[in-house]
Amino acid sequence: MAQSVAQAATLVVVASAWLGLRLLDLFVQRIARHLETRGLVGATILLKPAARLLKLVVLLGAGLLWLDNLGYKVTTLLAGLSISGVAVALASQKSLENIFGAITLYMSQPVKVGDFCRAGGHLGTVEEIGLRATKIRTLERSVVTISNAEFVNLHLDNLSARDRFWYHPTIRLRYGTTPDQIRYLLVEIRRMLYAHPRVLPDLAFARFNQFGQYSLDLEVFAYLATTNYFESLEIAEDLNLRVMDLVTAAGSELAIPAHIEYKAAGTPLDEDRARATGAQVKEWQERGALYLPSFPKEKIAELRGSLDYPPKGSPGGAAPPVPPPA
Q1: Which DSSP symbol is given to 58?
Q2: In 61-190, at which residue ranges do the beta strands (DSSP E only) sit?
Q3: CA distance linking residue 246 with residue 241, whole number of Å
Q4: What is the DSSP pairing of strand 122-129 with strand 116-119?
Q5: Integer Cα distance of 222 and 237 in angstroms
Q6: Is the separation of the CB atoms in 223 and 168 below 8 Å?
Q7: Distance between CA atoms of 164 and 228, rounded to whole angstroms?
Q8: CA 297 → CA 89, 290, 304, distances in Å?
Q9: Which pLDDT tens digit goes with each residue over 253-273?
Q10: Going along 54-178, which residue ranges are E strands?
Q11: pLDDT, tens digit, 9 for 90 and up, residues 289-309
Q12: Using 50, 70 and 90 to split pLDDT, how confident is the model at 113?
């Protein structure tokens, strides 16, 4: 009789364990579908080890019930297991921190696999977010491995998530630049920003910001119409070259740092260009076209996209004019 009861109890334990494992599989599948509908496909990588751990708990519980039905003192075994569990937990503290870090990365998604980001002092593409660490392919083509516990606490700048890039240089002009030269540059830099097809005109401006220690500082502010980091460098390079052309056309120069002294015999500013710049500003004033402190909206709309980009002579740019036959 006792043997048949023990056999029946064993069958109940086995059936309960089997049912628990099947329910766990269904639960994991449902969570996986839910994560996919929310766009968290990468988080499904965490489900397999989590499911294995839960299955191990179910099997361990079933084994303890079976031993209890056979008459063994399970409480003594549980006490030993609890002490061992505490020791294992203390020994695996760092591993648990990394696993929780991986859960945080997959659920909050500050970065995803394939994103181009800046993590602490590293700049590169996220190649893998594992249970222990995250791997970043840097611009030097090396792979940096950062533990998840450390990675989640870094300052993360997800460049792939940007909807535009900020262009914000300070143009430091040499002292001796005349007010009319500054007016000319403010107007022409703004005109260039409004006319450039890869600059968003809504917040683009140039301002005479301050009298610096060794320079007259113009602040340029604009957003570039791109979400690609490398393309933003190309556009910024084009804008920088155009600004340098405008500074030269105004007859001014970029400032030299204060620790290098100007000498009396040094090269003076271009007086001919300075006079031409002053004449241009005067002509704008006379016909009411000196667009300071701001351009009218209709003029911005007229200028929008009127510059050639890529510039003439570059692959994909406008073809240079063909000279007439001799």
Answers
A1: H
A2: 116-119, 122-129, 133-138, 143-147, 156-158, 165-167, 170-174
A3: 9
A4: antiparallel
A5: 14
A6: no
A7: 8
A8: 66, 14, 11
A9: 999 875 555 555 555 677 888
A10: 116-119, 122-129, 133-138, 143-147, 156-158, 165-167, 170-174
A11: 888 878 888 888 888 888 888
A12: confident
Please check whether residue 136 is in contact with residue 158, taking contact to mean a CB–CB distance below 8 angstroms: no
127 half-sphere exposure, CB direction, 13 A CA radius: 13
Token representation of residue 251: 């007859």
Q: Which two tokens stand for residue 42?
A: 């990468």
Burial class (CB in 10 A: 0-12, 13-18, 19+), 148: buried
Under 8 Å between Cβ of 199 and 184: no
Longest CA span, the chain: 119
How is the beta sheet containing 133-138 ordered, strand by strand? Answer: 143-147, 133-138, 122-129, 116-119, 156-158
* 211's tokens: 């009298």
- Nearest one of 199, 198, 207, 180 to 290, comparing CA atoms: 180
Residue 282 CA to residue 288 CA, distance in Å, equals 10
Beta strands in the chain (DSSP E): 116-119, 122-129, 133-138, 143-147, 156-158, 165-167, 170-174, 199-211, 215-224
Give the Cα-Cα-Cα angle 110, 155, 105 (nearest 5 degrees).
30
Grade residue 243 by pLDDT with cuts at 50, 70 and 90: very high
**Whole-angstrom Cα distance, residue 276 to residue 21?**
86
